[in-house]
Amino acid sequence: MEALIKEGAQLKAQIDQLSIRLREINNTLAQKAEFKDGKKTAHLFAPGIKATIQLRENIKWDQARLLEVKKHFGHFDSVFKAEFKPQSSKELTVAMAKSAEFEKAIEWTRTITPGAPGVTYETIEQGE
After folding, report:
1. Which pLDDT does position 103 carry in this prediction?
2. Is 122 helix (H, G, I), strand (E, B) or coil?
3. CB of 13 within 8 A of CB of 22?
4. Residues 67/73/77/81 CA torsion (nearest 10 deg)
5. CB-CB contact of 76 with 70 (8 Å)
6. How far apart are CA 99 and CA 22, in angstroms?
7. CA distance 109 to 68
8. Which of 42, 56, 92, 101 could pair with 33 in a Cys bridge, judged by C-beta atoms 3.0 to 4.6 Å apart?
9. Residue 7's pLDDT is what?
């Protein structure tokens, strides 16, 4: 077990360093690439290697503002969809505990599958 923990910590540290370097390389390539005619995809080449660079945007929608827009445009629902998510896991657990009928209905609406375990590593001083 001790060997696995040590190996896991070493691998995590290596991955973190490699991820930082890869992000730097990707940003440099994106800056150097020529995106034609407003396209978001470009290609760069090295001997035996083709790099495809795609510009991406992260968009966060203001739900309150979208509700305001919805009031004024009849076709809004054909463009946007509603998304239901629990306010918090704790609130959902409490609400389900208060009502067996609600719990049964919620269980009917969801599928739970196992996820990958999260493991964090930290360096500690000997003797801790």
Report:
1. 94
2. coil
3. no
4. -40
5. yes
6. 50
7. 29
8. 42
9. 96
